[in-house]
Automatic annotation (TrEMBL):
GO molecular function, one term: catalytic activity
InterPro entries for this protein: Orn/Lys/Arg_deCO2ase_major_dom, Orn_Lys_Arg_decarboxylase-I, Prn/Lys/Arg_de-COase_C_sf, PyrdxlP-dep_Trfase, PyrdxlP-dep_Trfase_major
Cofactor(s) required for function per UniProt: pyridoxal 5'-phosphate
The name this protein goes by in its record: Orn/Lys/Arg decarboxylases family 1 pyridoxal-P attachment site domain-containing protein
Pfam families: OKR_DC_1
UniProt lineage: Bacteria, Bacillati, Bacillota, Clostridia, Christensenellales
């Protein structure tokens, strides 16, 4: 693509995207289309449309979108399926809006930042329940249970059992399955919770040929039509038709060729030989390649980037790669590059046990990273990926937490233009 020059000045983001894409890159990160989504169908801006005649309306579907969502529900084995162009974050907020009408909200395991942000936006609170006490707590009654399955590392974390327990005790089950959008399309993959959970949402753009933000909320039982109303409350009135159309395209393609895709992916993954010092971690999802680097995965990630190989994430000593039909054949290139890399030693992980402060009457301010120790966090902060908060809004930033922020500033969500959001 020829770079456009501007007499009035620079277009830094546009230029950065062009610079990254101008060379051959090996992409093991989302979105799952790997730069080749929908062949040539969506390569032109002419497909970026709005609610014109024949294109239906996402907020009141009765034509093409309604038909696409009926086919989507059939593919995911649920009663109703609703498209989103605002990612699983939009689905999460719709699910929380529904849960608000049901009573007490519980959650177990690690949750994405969108869960905690949604609680605050809607003025809600939620009770954390340890896994080992889950059934005991559900017996006492609640409105809903939120949980994640699969997680960022492709582990399903007993999601089916959680849904079963919720059904047993009459609690609404809400599964964040953002990383499991591809599960229904091959017998080689885990069973999808879209078929059994009351509410389950998936990020189709993470692993399929779908543009960024493409997601689906799947609903079963008595909440199906309520979820439609909740989508109307939280979703933009200007959805991306590029994203909607790519989601419909991917659903049709995966329904037809999913078994073929994952049989081929399995062959490449099983044939992968990692160099000495690297080990493959167990994963329930064959297409979620998790590599133990024997050292700092962030250091390995940085060195791979310089070689033009981009992975999904680095968490501790684990390097995460999303393997798709577009990049499976290039796993050998990943292994060859890793053979030339010796990661730095991994520093011992520092867990936080921070004191919560009284935030009443306090307002947000911004302070330099070096001055944040002792101040009250004004926003959730954590590594992205995976998007799970390490420091919560309202917690007092101690010495360890301040050091964590300084060392990971380039990878943290929750900062504002390089400064820490605090409450004063």
């Amino acid at each position: 693509m020829k770079k456009q020059k501007f007499s009035a000045g620079k277009a830094p983001l546009y230029e950065a995207v062009l610079c990254l894409c101008e060379k051959d890159r090996v992409r093991f990160h989302m979105p799952g289309h790997g730069g080749a989504a929908a062949e040539e169908l969506f390569s032109s801006a002419k497909f970026d449309l709005t609610e014109l005649e024949g294109l239906d309306d996402l907020h009141s579907p009765c034509g093409a979108i309604a038909e696409a969502e009926e086919l989507l529900a059939k593919a995911y084995g649920c009663e109703r399926a609703y498209l989103f162009t605002t990612g699983s974050t939009g689905c999460m907020h719709a699910a929380l809006a529904l849960a608000r009408t049901r009573g007490e909200i519980l959650y177990t395991g690690e949750m994405h930042k969108s869960f905690f942000g949604g609680l605050r936006l809607l003025g809600l609170s939620a009770e954390y329940v340890p896994e080992e006490r889950l059934e005991e707590r559900l017996k006492r009654g609640a409105g809903s249970l939120f949980f994640t399955s699969p997680d960022y590392f492709g582990k399903t974390l007993g999601g089916e059992e959680k849904v079963r327990l919720c059904g047993k005790y009459g609690v609404l089950s809400v599964a964040d399955s953002a990383h499991g959008a591809h599960f229904p399309f091959s017998k080689l993959l885990p069973k999808s919770l879209t078929r059994i959970a009351d509410v389950c949402f998936v990020s189709m753009h993470k692993t399929m040929d779908v543009f960024g933000g493409g997601a689906a909320l799947c609903a079963n039982g008595g909440v199906a039509y309520e979820c439609l109303l909740m989508r109307g409350m939280v979703h933009t009135t200007s959805p991306s038709y590029l994203t909607l159309a790519s989601a419909d395209y991917a659903r049709a393609l995966w329904s037809e060729r999913g078994e073929e895709f994952y049989a081929e992916i399995a062959e490449y993954v099983n044939a992968l030989e990692l160099p000495r010092g690297y080990q493959r971690e167990e994963s329930d999802d064959l297409s979620r390649l998790v590599i133990n680097c024997g050292g700092s995965a962030a250091d390995a990630l940085e060195k791979l980037n310089k070689k033009g190989i981009y992975c999904e994430a680095a968490v501790g000593d684990k390097l995460v790669c999303i393997v798709t039909r577009h990049n499976a054949a290039r796993l050998k290139a990943l292994a060859e590059a890793l053979a030339t890399i010796t990661p730095k030693p991994l520093e011992k992980e520092r867990g936080f046990s921070l004191e919560m402060a009284d935030t009443r009457g306090k307002k947000a301010a911004f302070c330099p990273i070096g001055d944040c120790e002792g101040k009250i966090a004004g926003a959730d902060m954590g590594l992205y990926p995976p998007g799970v908060p390490n420091i919560m809004r309202g917690e007092i930033i101690d010495k360890k937490a301040a050091r964590f922020i300084k060392e990971n500033a380039s990878r943290l969500f929750g900062l504002a233009y390089g400064r820490v959001v605090v409450l004063e």
